[in-house]
């Protein structure tokens, strides 16, 4: 599993949809 960290939770949700199950997207909240 690969982890991707982005700034906003909304962005994290969207990116999660595109990347699929091999990736886990987390939000840093700024």
Characterise the protein shown here.
Residues 1-30 form the Toprim domain. GO terms for molecular function: isomerase activity. It holds the Pfam family Toprim. It comes from hydrothermal vent metagenome. Its EC number is 5.99.1.2. The protein is α+β, with helices and mostly antiparallel strands and 30 residues long. It has one domain. Helix content is 37%, strand content 33%. The protein has one helix and two strands. It has one helix at 9-19; strands at residues 2-6, 23-27. The protein has a two-stranded parallel sheet. The longest helix has 11 residues, at 9-19. The radius of gyration is 8 Å and the shape is flat. The protein starts with a strand and ends with a strand. The relative contact order is 0.43. The model has no long low-confidence stretch (mean pLDDT 95).
């Amino acid at each position: 599993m690969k982890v991707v960290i982005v700034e906003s939770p909304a962005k994290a949700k969207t990116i999660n949809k595109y990347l699929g199950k091999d990736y886990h997207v987390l939000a840093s909240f700024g």
